[in-house]
Task: inverse folding
RNA sequence: GCGGUCAUAGCUUAAUGGUAAAGCUCCUGUCUGUGGCACAGGCGAUGGGAGUUCGAUUCUCCUUGAUCGCC
């Protein structure tokens, strides 16, 4: 366990970081987000740069005031968008490779995505809003993140695609490391900055990346890229390098957090992790409960006059029943998304709070 | 009462004298540093009765129902 101290309060770890890409947890206002026991949120440099632009946020007094969130905040650097709007879009990929595809590393050292251009200095994006050109490199990302004003910012990196072979990842890592140094040098603010370890599923590249990022004067670590989806695979990769990095500095795992993996990654030494699953799945009609995932769109739930989870004490479970939420979903009512988002965040936060309690008792 | 039009999946619509197609709905999955999506698979139909024909959802007649017009 740990306490991460920031200018906006202390985060008790291990901890889930809910995703507020566009300075909002979709469907919730900041007061509601706080009521889910969320301690810290992560917003996004790329998206806020496009809309509304960092100057607007800066004029409003920074992200905290802009969105009326008084607790700690992070901003992701835009490095993930290098992947998601590039190779991710080209191949319809997530950052995890599916089972049985480990040998299909079709992106080689000369591979390049269709919709953006990656250079040694940064990335040329084409805005999906209006097609306008947009360049984002380490300097640009850090300057934007300084204007946004989150408590913790991330170095600009390239999240490598899971289909990338060893040579591609090696080359990408050279860029990411160079960008890490420039990110660190560019930052003039008092914000904390985390450097990102990449290397996909290649042992020596992960080890090299951990060694290099650990040697720089970052305040914490981000761990990104493909970490395998098969049970045990993530632990295997983390065990390669987690023991080699400074134990005083927090470790944030980027974009990971299926319920069934959370305990494992905490055991592997992860303090923080952001994940869209609780909020994203809520908008697909899925509730997380002690009985597993429930798809509330299913017609059978119209006949269930009971809370989403009998053991849950969140505002939703105390006040609403499955039949009503199912009706709202099937009727296309937006409030359904809000109720499920609220419940799912409570469920995840309670789930992790329980792990913290068990750590205190020496059970984990 | 008379005349016309129509009847295909839960809904809206295709097609054909030779095994009936699609969209939505419904069912089962997928989704990890967020484009309120998207994707994969599945269940499911020629209103009822007779006739012509090797074979009718298609052509003919009757019937039932819907709809429009006229009185």
Result:
């Amino acid at each position: 366990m740990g306490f991460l101290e920031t200018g906006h309060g202390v985060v008790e770890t291990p901890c889930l970081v809910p995703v507020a890409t566009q300075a909002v947890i979709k469907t919730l206002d900041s007061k509601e987000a706080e009521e889910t026991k969320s301690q810290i949120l992560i917003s996004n440099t790329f998206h806020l740069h496009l809309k509304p632009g960092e100057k607007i946020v800066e004029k409003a007094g920074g992200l905290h005031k802009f969105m009326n969130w008084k607790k700690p905040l992070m901003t992701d650097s835009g490095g993930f968008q290098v992947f998601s709007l590039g190779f991710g879009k080209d191949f319809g990929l997530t950052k995890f490779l599916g089972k049985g595809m480990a040998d299909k590393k079709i992106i080689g050292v000369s591979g390049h995505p269709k919709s953006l251009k990656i250079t040694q200095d940064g990335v040329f994006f084409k805005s999906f809003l209006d097609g306008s050109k947009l360049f984002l490199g380490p300097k640009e990302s850090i300057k934007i993140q300084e204007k946004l004003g989150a408590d913790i910012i991330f170095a600009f990196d390239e999240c490598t695609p899971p289909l990338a072979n060893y040579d591609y990842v090696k080359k990408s890592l050279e860029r990411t490391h160079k960008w890490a140094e420039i990110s660190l040098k560019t930052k003039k603010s008092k914000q904390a900055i985390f450097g990102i370890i990449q290397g996909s599923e290649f042992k020596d590249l992960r080890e090299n990346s951990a060694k290099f990022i650990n040697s720089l004067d970052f305040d914490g670590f981000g761990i990104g890229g493909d970490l395998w989806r098969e049970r045990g695979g993530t632990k295997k990769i983390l065990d390669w390098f987690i023991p080699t990095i400074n134990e005083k500095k927090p470790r944030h795992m980027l974009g990971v957090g299926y319920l069934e993996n959370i305990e494992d990654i905490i055991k592997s030494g992860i303090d923080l992790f952001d994940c869209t699953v609780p909020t994203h799945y809520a908008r697909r009609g899925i509730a997380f409960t002690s009985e597993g995932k429930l798809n509330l769109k299913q017609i059978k739930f119209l006949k269930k006059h009971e809370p989403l989870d009998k053991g849950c004490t969140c505002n939703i479970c105390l006040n609403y029943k499955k039949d009503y939420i199912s009706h709202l979903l099937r009727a296309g009512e937006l409030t359904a998304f809000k109720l499920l988002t609220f419940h799912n965040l409570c469920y995840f936060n309670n789930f992790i709070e329980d792990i913290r309690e068990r750590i205190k008792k020496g059970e984990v």
